[in-house]
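Sanity check

After download, print the first record. It should look like this:
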Amino acid sequence: MDNYEMFRNDLIAKLSETLPQSQIISVLKAFDVASSGYDISRKPLDLITTEGTPDVVKWYIASKAVSNTSTGTLKQYRYKLIDFFSTVRKPFQDVQPNDIRVYLFNFKKNRNASDRYLESVRITLNGFFAWLVDNEYLIRNPCAKVDKIRYQPKQREPLTPYELETIRWNTANVREKAIIDFLFSTGCRVSECSDVRLSDINWDDRSVLIRNGKGGKPRTVFFNAEAELSMRKYLETRNDDTDALFVSSRAPHQALKNAAIERIVSEIGERSGLSVFPHKLRHTFATSGLRGGMTLERLQTLMGHANPRTTMIYAKIDRTDIQREHQRIYA
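Expected structure tokens:
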């Protein structure tokens, strides 16, 4: 990964603290244009000067990497821990619960961070100090006594059937149509979509092997007949020998990266007059599955969630669904 892409990923992480996905995509478009004439270099981030702390942070990150934690999550851990120790200016052995409370208070006040993001910082710190206790670097976890930060989860809204068809009608070419149909019918994450290779596809049963899902866990997903038709029509237009399912339109036809797929989906949404991004298609997949009668356990498997509660967060079940089910059983 080059310096530009690393900086772009860090920028996305910071913007995610306060902006919704649709606004982040707009900011990134402007950034890509404005930064095209600049050479971006990376400045070292090892700013911790308290004795002993840099080593344990590195060991903690290494232990998480060995357990197949994603690269993006590792970057978040590292950023949050470095920021904490650079601010508190204490070795890890001397950190007290009040140090963490004051840090979180100032973090929210000075950076206008959301409670949701602040809780993610607390969770990171708690995980780090718990690991220090488990590995006998500390006797007790100073973050264990820091209260959880309550926040109101964002209400995710899936696309309606009409909106989904509107998006399909506003695709500009067969590649765009194939991307929309693939994302919706498989429920894949955008990172998983960009990683799909033609050799991973079994056309006989319309299945795709996701080799590197979240947490490094492989799984099999499926696509419908409409997606198969779109994908085949798209592949017929290609004359390259790249094994990736979705590639750039210009030579050397490299596999589309996450940002490119996000941009394509966003542009389709703009043509449709809708706010659309890959994760919204995944959310729509989950909601459609439950409304169609799929069990939570099977949907959880298809989406690659370790916890069924995560699946329920993605799946929109409104009052109408509950009322219909009540009438079916009790009427």
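If your output differs, re-run the checksum step. Summary of this record's structure: Residues 43-49 have pLDDT under 50 and may be disordered.
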